[in-house]
Design goal:
The complex is a heterodimer of chains A (113) and B (114). Chain A has no helices and eleven strands. Chain A has 113 residues and is mainly beta. In chain A, the strands form two sheets. In chain A, strands 2, 4, 5, 9, 10 and 11 form a six-stranded mixed β-sheet that branches. In chain A, strands 1-3-8-7-6 form a five-stranded antiparallel β-sheet, with no helix packed on it. The N and C termini of chain A lie far apart (41 Å). With 114 residues, chain B is mainly β. The chains are: A mainly beta (113), B mainly beta (114). At the A-B interface, strand 4, strand 5 and strand 10 of A face strand 4, strand 5, strand 9 and strand 10 of B.
């Protein structure tokens, strides 16, 4: 069935370091891959997304890469700041499944000052 | 534009009762999806409604149901509540009828079943 695996489950970095979170999806028909950030007690917020016709996308300190052949995608955060501390979720969906996102298990990122 | 809103924000029920949660999407959005978030299982898809029709359904028992009204507002209902139904229930809305469109989440309803 559809599945998204996310690693690591926890990640601790020093302020200013880079953080990388990796996800692997099982359904080769998946074509949309968003990343959400969820702070404690808050709603998930979209931080970046990528579609299957693109290999990489950047937005300031955040970038996402997609390898369709290997069926994996990654989130890269550079120059981390304490306010980046949160739980990050990757997700995947396919065009014929409407608004059905399959989420990874989440990565708790801690940025230490 | 106002964001996605959900009511109530918190709810306490006892086993065997039923509950109805409400979600108001962003104006103009026609798709509403529901998710259950728990520490153990993460974010799991419940179902999606588009133009008052259920378009997708996740792997949850029939006790979980939903509907969508002509103004795109959606409700989900859980009957015969079990302890394991305690969770944060999130809804998300999107504009286009495509799986490749951004979903915006509401703040969630925290359901506690005693």
């Amino acid at each position: 069935g559809e599945n998204v695996e996310q690693h690591p489950s926890t990640l601790s970095v020093q302020e200013g370091d880079s953080a990388v979170i990796k996800c692997t999806y099982s359904d080769s028909a998946s074509n949309y891959f968003p990343w959400y950030k969820q702070e404690l007690g808050k709603r998930p917020q979209l931080i970046i997304d990528i579609r299957s016709n693109v290999g990489e996308k950047k937005d300031q300190r955040i970038a996402v890469t997609l390898n369709k052949t290997a069926k994996h995608f990654s989130l890269h955060i550079t120059e981390t700041q304490p306010e980046d501390s949160a739980v990050y979720f990757c997700a995947a969906s396919k065009g014929n499944q409407g608004g059905k996102l399959i989420f990874g298990q989440g990565t708790e990122l801690s940025v230490k000052p | 534009k106002a964001g996605v809103t959900q009511t109530p924000r918190y709810l306490i029920k006892t086993r065997g009762q039923q509950v109805t949660l409400s979600c108001s999407p962003i104006s103009g959005h026609r798709s509403v999806s529901w998710y259950q978030q728990t520490p153990g299982q993460g974010l799991q898809f419940l179902f999606e409604y588009f133009s008052e029709t259920q378009r997708n359904k996740g792997n949850f028992p029939g006790r979980f149901s939903g509907r969508q009204f002509s103004n795109s507002r959606s409700e989900m209902n859980v009957s015969t509540l079990e302890l394991g139904d305690s969770a944060l229930y999130l809804c998300a809305s999107s504009f286009l009828d495509s799986g490749s469109d951004t979903q915006y989440f509401g703040p969630g309803t925290r359901l506690t079943v005693l």
